[in-house]
Amino acid sequence: MPKRSEEMLTDVWTSLMLVWITCVPYTSMTPIISQSKSLQTGSTARAKRGWVWNQMFVLEEFSGPDPILVGRLHTDLDVGSTPIKYVLAGEGAGTIFAINEITGDIHAMKRLDREEKAEYTLTAQVTNRDTDQPLEPPSEFIIKVQDINDNPPQFVEGPYRASVPETSQVGTSVTRVTATDADDPVYGNSAKLVYSILEGQPYFSIDPNTAIIKIALHGMDREMREEYLVVIQAKDMGGHMGGLSGTTTVTVTLTDVNDNPPKFSKSLYEFVIPEDLAIGQPGGKVKANDRDIGENAKSTYNIIDGDERDVFEITTDAQTQEGILRLKKPLNFETKKSYTLKVEAANIRFDPNSGAPFKDTATVKIAVEDSDEPPVFSKPTFVLQVDENAPINTVVGTVTARDPDVTGSLVRYFIDRHTDLERQFNVNVDDGKITLAKPLDRETDMWHNITVTATEIRNHSQISRATVAIRVLDINDNAPEFATEYEAFLCENGKPGQVIQTVSAVDKDDPIQGHYFEYRLIPEMLNNPNFTIKNNGAKHDTFRRQKQEMYFLPIIVTDNGNPPMSSTNTLTIRVCGCSREGIVQSCNVEAYVLPIGLSMGALIAILACIILLLVIVVLFVTLRRHKNKPLIIKDDEDVRENIIRYDDEGGGEEDTEAFDIATLQNPDGINGYLPRKDIKPDLQFMPRQSSGPNGVDVDEFINVRLHEADNDPTAPPYDSIQIYGYEGRGSIAGSLSSLETASSDSDQNYDYLREWGPRFRRLGELYSVGESDKET
């Protein structure tokens, strides 16, 4: 049953209270024990709770090797007569904290670090020492570790790097540093930090509370000093004596601003440039130095003053930041020997707050050096013209060149024969006159392009070239002729005066006024009653095929050139039969067109019949060849094992006319010619009867058969090979055919055939199988 509140209060006061040691060094700790006094509010004979203690103890963290007393437990049951034992359980019990079973003293056995664990929860109980039976219910209490200043501040993110523009104002923020302290920030000043600068003054300052680093000196110049090393200290205990401290470094870099103008290393530059310097080539370099870096040091160069500024230009080298003086126009020592220019270098980026002129100027003097220049043609290209068929040595034109040097060397002229492979032109080496070496034909080449070189006499390495384009002018040297070979067809029943053909002519010449041709018959046919020529057309009279089938009409074609050229061309005219509508149907010599009158459907039907007949013929020829296919022997391992295939089925053992079996046995049994049974002859051929003594040789037998096969008209149009098993009388083996065997019951052993090699292995297996079947 639960106790009433008054009874519980009596139990508390009648229990022994534990006095603990707080926040004093171990050497000064003395246990203080207070005895509880009994408060009797009722019968003392009732059962009471024997003991109780405070539920929280505070103990400073320590790092000493000796155990430290945390507190003492005591109960009023401990009167000496009852064997009691104090038991401790919970976090760290038995490892960090230990209890004296008899006295109840609790000691810390290991180092206590608040930063690792700030408090421990344990349970204490009193039991019988002999029986381990609990005498009191267990009670829970907490041991709290009190913080001491044992951790210095640390800059976890250090060392630091920061940057700030040069010439920044005083008080400009550079960066902020942060230090941390592992001590308890809510107990005492162990974690209260104060920042200060140990190194880096008077250039920088730091706020002691916020740790913001600022500029402390006016006009810091990067060109004088670019990098600073600042040492920052953080101290706990509010910066008072005895506090712990930590340091870090901050590397501050001054970034560049455009506060320096470009500056030429000298105010006057002098260059000597040869007059033969190629356009676009560099003639000199200038440079303006800038103490700034990066984009702030980049400059651009310009020519702002000077005589004939359009002769030169200046560009900027992006890598070296130099000004490259280049030539825009050719130099001529004989015309101008020197130039004076004023060059300016200016920064690309400009800071309007600086107020300084970020540019500089220098003077450039250029002296032109005389060079041995090649000859110069009066024109880079010469255009000349000459009549075709002009005689050899005709002057086409003249090219001129001179030496531009002061000395004025003589010039010689030559033709580059790579441009005149056929050597059609010559040039006078002294005066440059170009003459014809061969006659020219405009109809072959209308233009000729050659290259003429001019060379100094005193220096043959100085060569210049000019292109000469020669146009060949046309003269009337080609007669006109028919554009094609004309062949006209006229109807024998045509009307007189009908135009039968219109002809045209071509002329290879190209007159300025254009072509105009005149057509006429030869003088011998001017009075011809059959044909007339009028307006480029041929007209005819009435004709009959029975009288004349073909006419050859000579026509003279004359052009309008000076002098006029003419040629005689022949027009072939055929007389044909025509329909009433005047459509040509046939001519005696050859049909001009097929007769008209069949419809498209009829033509398609005729074409289909022709294709069908062709297919039938092809099938018939294929089947015929397949039927007459020769006996083919397929070569396997041995020719004596081949199988001869026939297209027709034999008559079995009673068929004795399929082939002559005596031929396979012995040629002695041949009495004459046996006709072939594989094909049915179309002609009856009577062979020559063979005569001779018995025992004819195999070679002679084969020759006879070959002669008969070659002269047999019923033989198929392909070679036929027949294999015979008879080897001849000179062979020890005799006939290999088994057809002559007198008895089939042979006891001969054929195992030796397997020893003859792979060619006889199959034969041995066949005879072995036969022996085994016989035994079976």
TrEMBL record:
Keywords (A to Z) from UniProt: Calcium, Cell adhesion, Cell junction, Cell membrane, Glycoprotein, Membrane, Metal-binding, Repeat, Signal, Transmembrane, Transmembrane helix
SMART domains to which the protein is assigned, alphabetical: CA
Membrane topology: Single-pass type I membrane protein
Transmembrane segments: 12-33, 592-621
A Pfam family: Cadherin
GO biological process: adherens junction organization; calcium-dependent cell-cell adhesion via plasma membrane cell adhesion molecules; cell migration; cell morphogenesis; cell-cell adhesion mediated by cadherin; cell-cell junction assembly; homophilic cell adhesion via plasma membrane adhesion molecules; morphogenesis of an epithelium
Cellular localisation: Cell junction, Adherens junction; Cell membrane
GO cellular component, one term: synaptic cleft
GO molecular function annotation: beta-catenin binding; cadherin binding; calcium ion binding
Cadherin domain segment(s): 75-155, 156-264, 265-377, 378-482, 482-597
Superkingdom of the organism of origin: Eukaryota
Function: Cadherins are calcium-dependent cell adhesion proteins.
Name under which the protein is recorded: Cadherin 8
Organism: Oncorhynchus mykiss (Rainbow trout)
Lineage: Eukaryota, Metazoa, Chordata, Craniata, Vertebrata
